[in-house]
Amino acid sequence: MMEFILVTGMSGAGKSRAINALEDIGFYCVDNMPPKLIPKFAELCLQTGDTLSRVAVVADVRGGALFGDLFEAMSVAKSFGVKHKILFLDCDDTTLARRYKETRRQHPLVTDEVQTVSKAISAEREILKPLYDNTDYLIDTTLLSTSQLKARISTLFLDEPMDSMPVQCMSFGFKYGYPSEADLMFDVRFLPNPFYVPALRNKTGLDDEVRQYVMDNDMTKELERRLYDLIDYLLPLYRNEGKSQIVIAIGCTGGKHRSVVLTEQLAAHVAVAGARTIINHRDIEKL
What we know:
5-stranded parallel sheet
């Protein structure tokens, strides 16, 4: 079966970097393809057999009026037997505006009527909402470096079947903002904080001393038991629904100690159950 990824999302959110990462792991990628050409392109890919078995196409608001044909085009491609997945790259509005200011590029929706980047970003969100609501893979690049985005793309799509459901276990710090891509989010700031133990402050949840400090607590043990029960109940339901991935985010204040420990514990538990597991410690290297 051909693996066909439709890459879309906000302008400035990193679609070009995502395409580069997909090319690095063997996808044949086409940027800014007019939607009406997608069915014909997909049909040609099918005719090549295994030659073009992994394909990614970028379609976004740069297509102007042609972008409105996207859903119809994907429906036609589906009639040919092409099952596609949507990868949506998102980013918060403030960061998008800053990126445009730094690069001095013009947003594709800036016109005589829409004269500011902020208004263009709002208009773009409205246009992309149907795609956002139907996305299979959502990546928020607000706090991701280029290497982190590449790692996320590789983990999602490297030699894995399209119908598998990877479970991404993410730690994060609330002081840096919550992850918008999270399907489930848990706050563990009520647990004893290793930050206030001088010998542990500069270590992370990956260190044995911190892990032992966090786990050697009755509240943590009870939380872990209840969390495992909930996740064990929910994952089969998400899988049966056909969800392409699930992101479970666990947050503490800074994203270095408690959330890291619980994320590692949860990932190990999910892996034992046979799920494909991705671990992402978003803020562990921040000061």
